Amino acid sequence: MAMRMIGVFFMFGSIIALLILMDSPLVAPQTILATIFRWHPYHKAYETMILGMYAVLGIHLWNAASDPVTHRSLINFTIWVNWVHAGIMVAFASTREHEWGHLLGDVLILGLAATILMWLRRPSISLQCDASGRRK
Questions:
Q1: How confident is the model over 97-129, as pLDDT tens digits?
Q2: In the chain, what is the straight-line distance between the N-terminal and C-terminal CA atoms, in Å?
Q3: Contacts of 31 (CB under 8 A, 6+ apart)
Q4: pTM metric for this prediction
Q5: Burial tier of 113 (Cβ tally within 10 Å: 0-12, 13-18, 19+)
Q6: CB 85 within 8 A of CB 76
């Protein structure tokens, strides 16, 4: 059940983000949300692509939640891809003063998603696998 929450998090987060990308007044250039979630210069096609990929990942995580041991590779990929994505964003945001808002926005969300998924993954995978990682 807890693993499904991560899939829901990715799916709904991506849907909300896609709605934001439809030029909602919530993310107009001078708003706080734009400072936290939009990079400059703004590239709608790029942001839509990234969010679409995260929506698909959320759907697959939802399916993986029913049998996390079988899908541990996808779960591990999700953890690592979020850490790498957040790390790259930290490097860019910290060297560009006008992008510092991202440290409180997408960087924080990606790091939390990876950490929570790592925490949720441990009992379900370790309890059902032998020492070599094979399913019991």
A1: 777 777 777 888 888 888 888 887 765 554 455
A2: 21
A3: 25
A4: 0.68
A5: buried
A6: no
